[in-house]
Automatic annotation (TrEMBL):
It comes from Pontixanthobacter aestiaquae. The lineage of its organism: Bacteria, Pseudomonadati, Pseudomonadota, Alphaproteobacteria, Sphingomonadales. This is Acyltransferase family protein. PANTHER family: BLR4337 PROTEIN (PTHR36927), MDO-LIKE PROTEIN (PTHR36927:SF1). Pfam families: Acyl_transf_3. The keyword Transmembrane helix applies. Residues 11-364 form the Acyltransferase domain. Keywords: Acyltransferase, Membrane, Transferase, Transmembrane, Transmembrane helix. The chain crosses the membrane at residues 20-40, 52-78, 90-111, 140-160, 180-201, 233-250, 280-304, 316-336, 348-370. One of its GO terms (molecular function) is acyltransferase activity, transferring groups other than amino-acyl groups.
C-alpha cells in the first residue's frame, strides 16, 4: 500500500466512529421494546417505533465501522511494518473480542437461555446443548460480529502489503483509480451519480456472493457465512481507497447541500427487500437499500468533516471511551432491560432510562477500571498505555483540573 495519506490524526473520521459506538447503546436499548426482537428479554411493552429505530440505525452504523476499518488499516500499514500492524490489530481487536466473548457475552447468553425457559445453573449451562450451539453457530459474537468480519479483512490488507512489491505497477494503479474517481465525481451532480454507482456495486456484490455454493452456511463452526462476511466488504474497500488518495477522501467528505435531505429521506423510508416481494421488486429494493446506506454513511462523514474536523480534549476522551462503550453496553442493556420488565412506566421513559443507565455505567467502568488498571486496559481496550494515562492524570491533578477532565 502506498503511503500517500498525510501523517495526521483524522479527528472527523475518528469522531464519527466514536459517536456511532455511543449511538449503538440506543440501538440495542431499542431492541428491548421492538416487536421485531421479541427474544430480547421477556418484556411485553413493545412499540413499532422501535422497529423503525433499530432498522434505521442498522442502515448506517456497521457500514460506517467497516469504512473506518479500511481507512485506518491503510494508515497503520503506511506507518508500521506488516508484523507491527498484525500485532496492533491482535491487541486492539482480537484481545477485547475474546475477552468480551468469554465474559459479558456469556453472561448475556445465559440470561437469554433462562428467559427462554432454561433451567440449568450457570455452571450446568456450560457444556449443555444450548452452550455448544451458542459457540458452534457463531451466536457467541452477538454485537461483536463486525469485529469478527474485520479480522480476515485486516489479514487480507496485510497480505497484499506483504506480497505486492513496492515498485509494482499494481500499487500505482491502486492509487490512480481513486484519484480518477476524485476528479470525475467532484461536482455535486456527479457525486449524486456516484452514489448510484456505489449502490449498484453493493447490489452486485450481494448477488454474486449469493451464488457461491454454500454461501449461507458457516465457513467453519463458530465463524460466519461467506455471504455475511463479504456483505460489508465494499465499505471496507472504499475506506481503503479513501486512505490511499487524499483527493478521493476530499471528494467523499465534501459538503453537498442535498445530502442532509437525502439522508433524512433514506432514514425515514428505510427501503428493505423481503421474501414477500416479487423477484424484480426485491432486486429494486435491494438496490434502494444500498443506496440509502451509502447516502447516510457518506452524509455522516461529511457532517463530521464539516463540524468536527478539529480535535480537542473532549473528542480525545470520546474516542478513548468509544471502544469500551461498544464492548460493554450490550450485556448491560440486557441486564437492565430485564430489571425493567416488571415496571409499568411509559415506554419512552423506560427506553430513555435504559439507554442512559447503560451508557453511564460504561463511562464509570471505563474511567475507574479500564483507565486505571493495566490488565483492564489491555483486556478490554487492547492498549498498553496505562503509564501515560497515569502521568497525564497526575499532571492534570497538579494543575488543579477537577473531575473527569483530570481522568
Amino acid at each position: 500500500m502506498s503511503a500517500v495519506t498525510q501523517n495526521k490524526h483524522y479527528h472527523d473520521i475518528d469522531g464519527a466512529r466514536s459517536v456511532l459506538m455511543f449511538l449503538s447503546v440506543a440501538l440495542h436499548a431499542g431492541t428491548v421494546y421492538a416487536p421485531a426482537r421479541l427474544w430480547i428479554t421477556t418484556n411485553t411493552a413493545r412499540h413499532e417505533f422501535f422497529d423503525w429505530l433499530i432498522f434505521g440505525f442498522h442502515l448506517f452504523v456497521t457500514p460506517t465501522f467497516f469504512f473506518v476499518g479500511g481507512f485506518f488499516a491503510v494508515l497503520l500499514l503506511t506507518r508500521r511494518t506488516v508484523g507491527d500492524f498484525l500485532l496492533n490489530r491482535l491487541l486492539r481487536t482480537g484481545v477485547p473480542l475474546v475477552t468480551i466473548a468469554i465474559t459479558l457475552n456469556m453472561i448475556e447468553l445465559y440470561l437469554r437461555y433462562v428467559d427462554a425457559g432454561g433451567s440449568e445453573s450457570p455452571f450446568g449451562w456450560i457444556g449443555s446443548a444450548n452452550f455448544v450451539e451458542v459457540w458452534s453457530s457463531g451466536l457467541w459474537a452477538l454485537h461483536l460480529w463486525f469485529l469478527v468480519s474485520l479480522v480476515p479483512m485486516f489479514f487480507l490488507a496485510a497480505l497484499i502489503e506483504k506480497i505486492v512489491p513496492r515498485e509494482s505497477g499494481l500499487r500505482g494503479r491502486a492509487v490512480a483509480v481513486p484519484e480518477w474517481l476524485a476528479v470525475a465525481f467532484k461536482s455535486s451532480a456527479a457525486f449524486a451519480f456516484f452514489l448510484l454507482l456505489l449502490a449498484a456495486a453493493n447490489t452486485a456484490n450481494y448477488l454474486v456472493a449469493g451464488q457461491v455454493p454454500g454461501a449461507y452456511e458457516l465457513i467453519f463452526p463458530g465463524f460466519q457465512s461467506w455471504y455475511k462476511l463479504v456483505s460489508e466488504f465494499p465499505f471496507f474497500v472504499i475506506g481503503v481507497m479513501a486512505a490511499l488518495s487524499p483527493a478521493f477522501l476530499a471528494t467523499l467528505v465534501k459538503w453537498r447541500w442535498y445530502m442532509p435531505y437525502a439522508a433524512a429521506a433514506a432514514l425515514i423510508l428505510q427501503p428493505y427487500a423481503n421474501p414477500e416481494q416479487s423477484e424484480l421488486l426485491s432486486l429494486f429494493m435491494l438496490f434502494a437499500n444500498q443506496l440509502a446506506i451509502w447516502t447516510i454513511v457518506l452524509f455522516i462523514l461529511q457532517f463530521f468533516h464539516r463540524y468536527f474536523i478539529n480535535g480537542g480534549p473532549r473528542t480525545a476522551w470520546l474516542a478513548d471511551c468509544a471502544l469500551s462503550m461498544y464492548l460493554f453496553h450490550h450485556c448491560l442493556v440486557y441486564v437492565y432491560g430485564r430489571w425493567l420488565v416488571p415496571v409499568e412506566w411509559p415506554i419512552w421513559l423506560e427506553f430513555s432510562l435504559l439507554t442512559a443507565a447503560s451508557a453511564l455505567t460504561v463511562i464509570v467502568v471505563h474511567e475507574y477500571v479500564v483507565r486505571r488498571f493495566g490488565w483492564a486496559r489491555l483486556l478490554f481496550n487492547g492498549k498498553t498505555d496505562i503509564d501515560k494515562i497515569r502521568a497525564k492524570r497526575e499532571r492534570k491533578a497538579a494543575a488543579g483540573t477537577p473531575g473527569l477532565a483530570a481522568a
